[in-house]
Amino acid sequence: MWFWRILRGPGGFWRGTLGFLKVLEVSVWFWRVLCGPKRLQALWVLILCSVPQEFGSYSSLGQTQFSQYYTLPPSYTPAGLPAADQHAAAAVGGYSAVKSEEAASAGLPPPSPAESLPAGAALPSAVTLPAAAREDELGRRNSVGKAKGKAKKSDSSPPADGDLENLNASVPFQRIFLWDLDETIIIFHSLLTGSYAQKFGKDPASVLNLGLQMEELIFELADTHLFFNDLEECDQVHVEDVASDDNGQDLSSYNFLADGFNGPGGGGASGAGAGVQGGVEWMRKLAFRYRRLKEIYNSYKGNVGGLLSPVKRELLLRLQAEIESVTDAWLSTALKSLLLIQSRGKCMNVLVTTTQLVPAVAKVLLYGLGDVFPIENIYSATKIGKESCFERVVSRFGKKVTYVVIGDGRDEEFAAKQNQNPNCSAKAGPPSLQHNMPFWRISTHGDLVSLHQALELDFL
What we know:
The chain is 48% helix and 5% strand. With 460 residues, the protein is mainly α. It has 3 domains: 2-43, no CATH class; 71-117 and 131-146, no CATH class; 167-456, Rossmann fold, CATH 3.40.50.12350. It has a 5-stranded parallel beta sheet, with helices on both faces. α2 crosses α3 and α14 (330-343) runs parallel beside α18. The protein is elongated, with a radius of gyration of 40 Å.
């Protein structure tokens, strides 16, 4: 009350103001004596903080409260930096998981030493992508990253050499398609016999000429690069059938022409099996040839022209185009189904042909099917028949897989039925190998088109 008396006393406003200041000074002196300088500082802070602030009822929204919205998923793969930020492009090492205020305003994630960009991800300094292009590229990379992540979970490493037949049912394949080659995927044998020209109304002479030229190329490739002269009389069902006799010797400087494989001395080593077909040395040299055959196939399966002379390469291109024309794009139509199967994650194409293994490999290369059929998925039924080949495939991939047989002849259909019928004769193999194998017959273009439609609709 004494404060208001001084403020309202005689002297008006100025006297009141001076009185207020005097009282304040006395109060400060009193508090300083009582509390000391530190408590006086706290008093001023208390007085200032007690003043009401505008919008004081609103809480501050920091990014730490919403860090989950800034945390990138584990599959995030950073794209390259745009060239607009020269400093960031010069020393970028990766992206952090949480954006900062500066990065958010610039539209770029800040660099972090903990992560590093994948090789080749950064854009050249002179290239600047539009915003839409950057978003598309980011989406593409993210999808690739996710696909890689999924593949790591479900992918199974391929079996070691010589162990294909022991592959158990843990392989993550759900459906195996067993393909015939001639007159199913490619048109070759019927070109030579004239049956294709007669069936589809083509000129017999020109069709036969195309078949003969392709046959010449097939055997030239097989003889020159695939050891067919050495292997014709010791044909195998599968390229890994003699891998157990291979000692792993380096073949980079090995002379196949001078090792005496077909010579009168055979192996030339001492022992009971020396110089005898089927002996230890002879089998080792045979295994060397099949191992080299596999290496050549894997090296040139996407570029068979590298094995041919320029003249033969031009001839191959011409024959491919002319055969495709005269057969009304038969191979291209079949290739659609092959590629669709290949694009599925848990399906596989396997080739079972009555052609000998080496000429079959040459056909696959010359018809451009090397990327569709790994050499481990090529079986020759010349010696044991398709029924036994199917049994070997079932032994390799297991009984929990669905097998679909695709072919043009009765041998494939009969083999499929023999493996399908649990009450068939003993010729069909042991009961453990009998399996459900539906058969899809290919005899016309319409059959190939229907097959592709069935695959697209997931009927197969």
